[in-house]
């Protein structure tokens, strides 16, 4: 699903604004291709400061009808794609750090509300996006020693993927009265720019939801206070214990579309 026409449009827009940009059509699901992409960026610009993983595709289907190919395609583009590009970027930054250079690397991953709360008809996509959220936590914990931060965004915006679904296209259409365009993708850009900047150096390992003018921190899985019997539970005791836990804990968010 590589769209070179769209890539050229972005390059043209950046160039018109006085910036520099290049197109790279590497397949991010291939490890060697991803290495070439990172190497080309370093060669073209002299250094590498940030990686924004935002490539994605949809292969929506209810779980009972999903094919292996639909599952594998989503895992390859979303989850493996995040790994391949970032792996080579991190190797570059780690080498710089070992050589004594000051590193200020930034990783911005793209998860989704589907991965944080689940989404009906998108079990493959939701699983991949949940994996990206967990990957972000690991990257943040492991890579800060090299001067690298890792965060993820969960944006709600109008894109080629969302507008391909008629009902989503209608819901996310720009307002006819000229008011604030809640679903304009530009609304997410400021967050990404900040996450890639020097100003965000003390912020890592977090998932941020962005929709229109609203920013939220997705708090993720947390272990509750729980119930400790102090000895082994009998199967007959488990039901009452679970119900007690449910009464005392914050209810889970509803799955999208449920």
Describe, in short, the structure shown:
With 258 residues, this protein is α/β, with parallel strands linked by helices.
Topology, please?
Blueprint: H1 4-16, H2 31-45, E1 50-52, H3 68-98, E2 105-110, H4 113-117, H5 123-143, E3 148-156, H6 160-163, H7 166-171, H8 186-195, E4 207-211, E5 214-218, H9 235-248
Parallel strand pairs: 1-2, 2-3, 3-4
Antiparallel strand pairs: 4-5
What proportion of the residues is helical, as a percent range?
A: 40-55%
Calculate Rg over CA atoms: 21 Å
Q: What is the count of helical runs?
A: 9
Tell the overall outline: globular
Regions with pLDDT < 50 over 5+ consecutive residues? none
CATH-assigned homologous superfamily of the domain at 49-218 = NAD(P)-binding Rossmann-like Domain
CATH domain topology of the domain at 49-218: Rossmann fold
State the end-to-end CA separation.
29 Å
Strand order of the largest sheet: 1-2-3-4-5
Work out the number of β strands. Answer: 5
Can you walk me through this structure?
The chain is of the alpha/beta class. The chain has a domain at about 50-220: Rossmann fold (3-Layer(aba) Sandwich). Helix content is about 45%, strand content about 10%. The protein has nine helices and five strands. Strands 1-2-3-4-5 form a five-stranded mixed beta sheet, with helices on both faces. A hairpin with a 2-residue loop joins strand 4 (about 205-210) and strand 5. Helix 2 crosses helix 3 (about 70-100) and helix 3 (about 70-100) runs parallel beside helix 5. The radius of gyration is 21 Å and the shape is globular. The mean pLDDT is about 95.
